[in-house]
Amino acid sequence: MSQKEVFSSRWALILAALGMAIGTGNIWRFPRILASNGGGAFLIPWAVFLFLWSIPLLITEFAIGKHTRKGPAGAFGELIGKRFIWMGCFVGFCTLAIMCYYSVVMGWCVKYFLASFQNLFTDTNIFAAKTDFWQYFLNSRYQPLVLHLASMAIGAYIIYNGVVKGIERTNRILIPSLLVLIIIAVIRALTLDGAVEGLNYFFNPDWKMLLNHKIWLDGLSQSAWSTGAGWGLVLTYATYMRKREDIVLNSFITGFGNNSASLLSGLALFPAVFALAPKIPLDAATELAKTGPASTGLTFIWMPKLFAEAPLGKGLCLIFFLVLSFAALSSLISMLELGTRSFMDAGMTRKSAVLFVAISGFIIGAPSAISMDFFENQDWVWSIGLTLSGFFFAFAVIKFGPTRFRKKIINTPDNDIQIGIWYDIVVAILIPLEFVVLIVWWFYQALDWQLEWWNPFRVFSIGTCIFQWAAVIGLFLWFNRSIGKKLIPERN
Asked: What secondary structure does DSSP assign to 350-418, as a single string?
């Protein structure tokens, strides 16, 4: 299929890439992971792995997408041969599996934003009357399902309108608005009495924590999750890059932009939590590290109650959930575009492809909207699966030849910045090693969580990961040849 659309400018591409990277992982996951590792010391390994995992993989994705002009499956086939198309299929499937329940999360964010808006016009705090996330929301089963449908429909409408009129126009509004709202939240949080304690917790590291292997592994997992590196999303957007577009600079901007959003989110959340928690009363550090069902503890249980204790807290609550909704939407549309691009590569029109992806995503995601066990299982399986996706990208570079890949595909004359041999070392040696260490660590933890670690029907078992990954990989291996014929027609 010929390429018909490209981003109109570098600014448009960067906004789209930032929209992909900046999501609920920055606002929801980052503060909790930092708190579970004792505060500011976590920032060091988190920053280190930006350079040892995220940015190298972002460079890889930008380069492959720009070079092949295909989605993940077709890109792997073009780069290293048709027999490896199944790897690209797994990358795409893993991200689309996340999309199915990520839309559910966006529905939660929208629900809480609407509730916050309603709360502005009442004399009492409607959140304070609810004891937890389950009673407020999940016990009403139809609401998550309806909001999951609404979220998927909003994202699909944007993608339906194409790259320039859909993705580009939306991100021109979403990302600057997101930045402004976060800054407003930061300013308000920093003016609360007691906010300085939150800043000390955020930026004053306990150096002894760096001797604990867990903080380094959590730093790697947070960097991998938050930046979107290895998801295939950047690769998909890169298929719409203009020819004279810098791969390396755009990768660094995306990585640093994502981490900056996380820091701003921390500046809004930590001062607010430490200033307001004693009024409930709660221990701030303890509550920050709690997860709750599907990791909803801080975001959907305690933050609304904390805001209720602040002057102008209802307005701050409204801003917080609007930011969360914008962040979720900007990431959701990138996942929808990955699926749409993949089916367009196989010959479908954009309109048919986006309808198929959105409808399928709603149906597959419906169990996650009505069952927390199913939601947590899918999050466990496919969030860990992302590390396998990242490894597959590293494998593709190794198979192609790291030095050859760097010189031929990355360091083109269009690049303002040329990268050196450090890239070869990180992608060919460090990323595969990081993948092995991270997988072993996660599975080792699962041995403690589950007595029947082998059982594929346990929520957090090793068996459920291996079973679902093997089923998906086996399916794609079986159909690898027929998929290849669709994506990469024989050339005469």
From this structure: HHHHHHHHHHHHHHHHHHHHH-HHHHHHHHHHHHHHHHHHHHHHHHHHHHH-HHHHIIIIIS-TT-SS-
Contact 91/232 with Cβ under 8 angstroms?
Answer: yes
Q: DSSP string of 18-79?
A: HHHH-SHIIIIIHHHHHHHTTSGGGHHHHHHHIIIIIHHHHHHHHHHHHHH-S-HHHHHHHH
Q: Give domain limits for the chain.
A: 10-487
- State how far the Cα of 152 lies from the Cα of 103, in Å rounded to an integer: 6
- Residue 211: per-residue pLDDT: 93
Nearest CA among 67, 77, 70 for reference residue 490: 77
**Homologous superfamily (CATH) for 10-487:** Amino acid/polyamine transporter I (1.20.1740.10)
Give whole-number Cα distances, 347 to 75, 90, 181, 352, 487, in Å: 15, 20, 41, 10, 8
Half-sphere exposure of 388 (CA within 13 A, CB side): 25
Over residues 113-143, the pLDDT tens digits come to 998 888 777 766 666 655 566 665 666 778 8
Q: Give the C-alpha separation, 358 to 306, whole Å.
A: 36
pTM score of the predicted model = 0.94
pLDDT digit string (tens) for 455-479? Answer: 999 998 999 999 999 999 999 999 9
